[in-house]
Amino acid sequence: MTRTVYVNGEYLPENEASISIFDRGFLMADAVYEVTSVLGGKLIDFEGHAVRLKRSLDELDMAEPCTKEALLEIHRKLVELNEIDEGLVYLQVTRGSDGDRDFAFPSEDTPPSIVLFTQNKPGLADSPAAKKGAKIISIEDIRWGRRDIKTVQLLYPSMGKMMAKKVGCDDAWMVEDGYVTEGTSNNAYFVKDGVIVTRPLSTEILHGITRKAVLRIAEEAQLKIEERLFTIEEAQSADEAFTTSASAFVMPVVEIDGVTLGEGVPGPIAKRLREIYLDESQKAAI
Ligand code: PDD
Fold first, then answer.
1. pTM of full prediction above 0.85
2. Domain extents for the chain?
3. Ligand 1 test: best mutation among 136, 185, 214, most atoms within 8 Å of CB?
4. Which fold has domain 4-120?
5. Is the CB of 247 under 6 A from ligand 1?
6. N or C: which end of the chain has fewer CB within 10 A?
7. pLDDT at position 131, please?
8. What pLDDT, on a 0 to 100 scale, did the predictor assign at position 195?
9. Is 198 in the pocket of ligand 1 (CB under 6 A)?
10. What confidence tier does 1 reach under pLDDT thresholds 50, 70, 90?
């Protein structure tokens, strides 16, 4: 089945969709994005992603391509047209193009570009990777300083994933000034003596939509949460660890830089949070 995608107002077969070579998303990574998961054909936390998109656009003085209601409509239509039961909707908004390359932003009446496509991922909720748990390496965080804006500058996170793959691991956690910032595409946590530790929100990390939901669930389950800086060594001596993201929900971590956590299997708190998150978010999906 040929995928139907959305580009600047049109629903098109993926091989007929196009964007200008002068688009600033392509030339300058002058673009922001969101990834919303789909379970049972419904969108998980659309509202959270729409609010964060607006914030990213505002922080970069980028125009909104359409209303939130129109955005929801496009998401739903793509899910329906592509018959997605479990998967993702990728959304990207760029500053558009005025037909040439220039460091200066184009004039304000230049319309933003908007692209959406779906990714079909059967078995996303019942993932074998989550049953096994992830092996993590640590790498230095050399990204720019506004990681709270969800830009498409993903070269270094991609390189981090490749560094992990090269040594037989699944992902990397990034470390700045001795403290873990976040994973290449997720927020990072460890659990020690029943206390969940994660870095507080700032411009140094993305304000994860899944993070917010999972911390609320943890609080409701009477679990203790400490939002503070932490080191790789601390995480290595933890009882368990995990990451959160829209594409992998709650992913247990079983090894950090070659050190096995606990029994080397997903920990009970990560497993429980994953279960409750999947259950609650599917009930609230739209
Ligand atoms: N990544 N931190 C980073 C650097 C991320 O790229 C992501 C998400 C997160 C988690 O945010 P959320 O819970 O809102 O998905 C944290 C997406 C899934 C991606 O790039 O595919």
1. yes
2. 4-120, 128-284
3. 185
4. D-amino Acid Aminotransferase; Chain A, domain 1 (3.30.470)
5. yes
6. N
7. 97
8. 98
9. no
10. confident
| Per-residue confidence (pLDDT) for residue 99, from 0 to 100 | 94
| 3 state SS for the chain | CCCEEEECCEEEEHHHCCCCCCCHHHHHCCEEEEEEEEECCEECCHHHHHHHHHHHHHHCCCCCCCCHHHHHHHHHHHHHHCCCCCEEEEEEEECCCCCCCCCCCCCCCCCCEEEEEEEECCCCCCCHHHHHCEEEEEEECCCCCCCCCCECCCHHHHHHHHHHHHCCCCEEEEEECCEEEEECCCEEEEEECCEEEECCCCCCCCCCHHHHHHHHHHHHCCCEEEECCCCHHHHHCCCEEEEEECCCEEEEEEEECCEECCCCCCCHHHHHHHHHHHHHHHHHCC
Q: Whose CA is nearest to atom 1 of ligand 1?
A: 185
Pick the residue whose CA is nearest to atom 5 on ligand 1. Answer: 185
**What does the pLDDT read at residue 226?**
98
Give me the CATH topology for the region 128-284: D-amino Acid Aminotransferase; Chain A, domain 2 (3.20.10)
